Amino acid sequence: MSEGIELSEEQLKNDICKVMRHLFERGLVSALGGNVSARLPGSNEFWITPSGIFKGELTPDDLIKVDLDGNIIEGFGRPSIETPLHAAIYRVRPDVNAIVHAHNPFTLGLALAGVGLKPITVEAVMVLRKVEVVPFAFPGTDQLAKLVAEKASTGARALILQNHGIVALGSNLYDAEAVAETLEEVATAQFVAMALGKEPPVIPEREVELYYKLYRLG
Ligand SMILES: [Zn+2]
Question: Is DNA-binding set as a keyword in this record (predicted)?
Answer without folding.
Answer: no
